[in-house]
Design a protein that fits this description.
mainly alpha; about 70% helix
């Protein structure tokens, strides 16, 4: 299907099923025009999936256009990484990829000062450890206890 040289690539690809398009994407070079056209066709087919993921955040202060862009990045990652030999549904694979990319966008944009992602993730670990230790000890844990739980030095914890 993806070998028609005299036709417009998009016209030929629009008739193909998802599996054939995905197989074509996996077997062609990144610079191949038919590969790019197959990716574009799949993005068009699954853009409603991106919109549905963005709808959950319609009341957020982030512009919808920015969230859609993040969703498209997730969709493209899903298309490029999906293996039709392993799974049977691109949409089932793509939905968490799109949602994850939107969440990553929020995580990266929410901070007023740019904070390294590793520091943001460490903060999440700290909160979880504090909650768990508070339940175990039946009191607020000391800094040394938290540092020990996270396997970091006291200075890094602070």
């Amino acid at each position: 299907m993806m070998t028609a040289a005299t036709c417009e690539p998009g016209a030929v690809l629009a008739e193909g099923d998802d599996s054939a398009l995905l197989t074509g994407i996996r077997t062609r070079d990144d610079a191949d025009q038919l590969r790019a056209a197959a990716c574009e066709e799949l993005v068009i087919r699954y853009q409603s999936l991106g919109r549905s993921c963005v709808q959950r955040y319609r009341d957020s202060p982030e512009p919808v256009e920015d969230l859609m862009q993040a969703g498209y990045v997730g969709l493209l990652k899903a298309i490029n990484n999906y293996d039709p030999a392993i799974g049977s549904s691109l949409s089932a694979y793509a939905a968490p990829c799109v949602s994850g990319e939107i969440k990553r966008h929020f995580r990266d944009k929410r901070w007023q000062v740019h904070v390294r992602r590793s520091a943001q993730e460490r903060l999440l670990e700290l909160r979880k450890a504090r909650e768990e230790l508070t339940q175990q000890l039946k009191r607020m844990p000391a800094d040394d206890e938290l540092a020990s739980r996270l396997r970091v030095g006291r200075a890094e914890l602070l």
